[in-house]
Amino acid sequence: MDDREIVSLFFRREESALSYTAEKYGGRLKKLSLGITGDRLTAEECENDTYLEAWNRIPPHDPAEYLYAFLAGIIRHLSLDVCRSRSALKRSAHITALTAELEECIPAPDDAACRLEHRELGEAIGRYLLTINEQKRTIFIRRYWYLDSVADIARRMGIGQSNVKMTLLRCRNGLRDFLTKEGYNL
Amino acid sequence: MRGSEMLDVMGYLPPEMVEAADKPARRHTWLRWAAIPACVCLILGSFAAARMFSPVTDIHINYLGDSFHDFSAYIDILAEMYTGLPEEEFREIEQEFASETGIRYAALTARIPTEFKLNYFYAALTPAKPDGSTEESVRDYVLEYTAADGGRMKLAVSAKGKPLRCVILPDAAYEPSLVNGTEMWIHAAGGEFLAEFYHDALYYSIQTDGISEALLREVLDSITGN
């Protein structure tokens, strides 16, 4: 079923919207959550919570043009919350590694007084990503949005792991410079 | 701001960007198609290369009569015996050996068939010139073995050139052999064999007395094999 039709079912409050959504995107969503949480049961719970959250958000949201990204954003957020709230050492190590990498993008040390709205900063990062080529952009998003491992990205892109690591390093440095030039003091 | 918050910030990336990054990676189709004939060429090429470069053994022994005596020459060398040295000193010699030859002593001796027992290990030194222009230095390393049936074998290796020996035989005058793809010259006289070759950046000379041709082949195969 077309995304627009699924979203219209949500708007009409027809519960079949959930089954169609699960049928079309369930596998990808569960895979995304599994990549973050590392636990199949937790991933299934996150998937179900995602449908519930979507049910609550549509309307007023109208993600007809980007339904998968909308759902993926929800399940990513839920999965990260699960990781933060539990003490699964292995997965925590995965998240810790990712956050350490992302800290390299921050132009200035932690300072609560000059924190920006997350949304505004997210849009700035989006602008930066438009300045780099599609492959680099995909690698960056796969790593820091989908939280894929370097090995998975390398396999997906058909390139070497060292190539992925080097691209990520350059992107992080580039993002830090970009944010500095844009006047962000995080 | 901390890195963990940056993970949340990433959640605000434009949805179209997120969607685009989840599409299967685009690959150049022509590359995939080009890869097929390339693979075929590679496979065919591999077979051809395998035929050309595969370990080939084709032995021609040059029989030179009853004795190597007619081809012998006098050489002036000094021998420095290492057999029987205290362990600590022998370790230093092993290090020198590895540094001079590029192969570990243990790795070389491990290639010799177990029928052989090592009797002596020594270095052949070139003496210092009286005018002082060159100092005394190690030229070859020599290992002397006895086979179980009483035959003897002297294995000399050098990275500096053909090991010094009493028998001088110009390679060009004789038919070479191939053992595992390594070109070598094998001569026979009476019950003796002399095999000379260059393998893995090292010159070898193997002289035997009372050793069967089969056992010699085994030695050559073991040294030149992978």
Estimated structural class of chain A: mainly alpha
Percentage of β-strand residues of chain A: under 5%
Percent helix of chain A: over 70%
The strand count of chain A comes to 0
Q: Please estimate the helix content of chain B.
A: 25-40%
Annotation field: number of helices of chain A: 9
Q: What string gives the helices and strands of chain B in order?
A: HHHEEHHEEEEEEEH
Beta fraction of the residues of chain B? 25-35%
List the helices and strands and how they pair.
The complex is a heterodimer of chains A (186) and B (226).
Chain A: H1 3-11, H2 16-37, H3 40-57, H4 67-85, H5 89-103, H6 118-130, H7 134-144, H8 150-157, H9 161-181
Helix pairs in contact in A: 1-2, 2-3, 2-4, 3-4, 6-9, 7-9, 8-9
Chain B: H1 3-10, H2 15-20, H3 29-53, E1 61-63, E2 78-81, H4 87-101, H5 105-109, E3 116-126, E4 137-147, E5 152-158, E6 177-179, E7 182-189, E8 192-199, E9 202-209, H6 213-224
Parallel strand pairs in B: 1-7
Antiparallel strand pairs in B: 2-3, 3-4, 4-5, 5-9, 6-7, 7-8, 8-9
Keywords:
heterodimer, A: 186 residues, mainly alpha, 9 helices, B: 226 residues, alpha+beta, 9-stranded mixed β-sheet, 9 strands, 28% strand
